[in-house]
């Protein structure tokens, strides 16, 4: 505001007119009209606004002295880009991951649906080779921990899995979605919803170790923009906190983990007690009544 806005107001002859850009107006330009790591397009859009104000002034029309987010949309038109925001409710089989892109960070949703079938898994959403391998590793981890997670191992033989990452036209790749993929799968098989205000990033091994990833600062900024309250990171990424602005560290609850079990404790709703009792009753041996006892 002190540099870009001031310079454009001066260049368009508006410096002495008392025009002021609200903070929300600038945020609207950044979120809805630019998609970049730098500020070149931001300054270009500020210049577009100033040019339209200058034209109104030259035509003798009334000009706005305070530029609000609503004024930005009037001058620049409908938003060109949309930011991913939180789901409306906690859902089964939907995990919120975090991604790094060439223009900054973003959150992404990973969806899993289960259907009667023969144990096949379909992956959609333009997933690259590495991300497809991460999905296979997440499924292997889930199967290997089935009994501990309260999943009937036979279910994997009679169930087809469809795993989808929305915005199917956008290619996605990398290993950092491993914990998100596993969380979505485990949520779907255990019927435990995932907290919508929790986002996560981390590579997952077959044995459940969570490995460090890159782009932590950008991912954390994207999570905060989307309304995330808790951000799960690999333990070895704790050193990256020093690169994260202090205000962001105060706004987000960072949870550092080494194992997938720790991710599930934070991200998923607790297993229902009824389900636990039902499983224990199913595994208990039947009681054989003494001879001569009348049927009940």
Quaternary organization = single chain
Number of helices: 11
From the 3D structure, determine the CATH topology of the largest domain. Answer: Ribosomal Protein S5, domain 2
Radius of gyration: 26 Å
Structural domains: how many = 2
CATH class of the largest domain: Alpha Beta
CATH architecture of the largest domain: 2-Layer Sandwich
Q: Which structural class is indicated by helix and strand composition?
A: alpha/beta
Our measurement of the CA-to-CA distance between the termini, rounded to an integer number of angstroms, reads: 81 Å
The whole-number mean of residue pLDDT values reads: 87
Summarize the amount of helix as a percent range. Answer: 25-40%
Overall number of strands: 11
Order of helices and strands: HEHHEHEEEHHEHEEEHEHEHH
In the predicted model, the low-confidence regions spanning at least 5 consecutive residues are 275-296
Strand order of the largest sheet: 3-4-6-5
How much beta, percentage-wise?
15-25%
> How is the biggest beta sheet arranged?
4 strands, mixed
- Any idea what the shape is? elongated
Overview of this protein structure:
The protein is of the alpha/beta class. It folds into two domains: about 70 residues, Helicase, Ruva Protein, domain 3 (Orthogonal Bundle); about 180 residues, Ribosomal Protein S5, domain 2 (2-Layer Sandwich), CATH 3.30.230. The protein is about 40% helix and about 20% strand. It has eleven helices and eleven strands. Strands 3-4-6-5 form a four-stranded mixed β-sheet. A hairpin with a 2-residue loop joins strand 3 and strand 4. The protein is elongated.
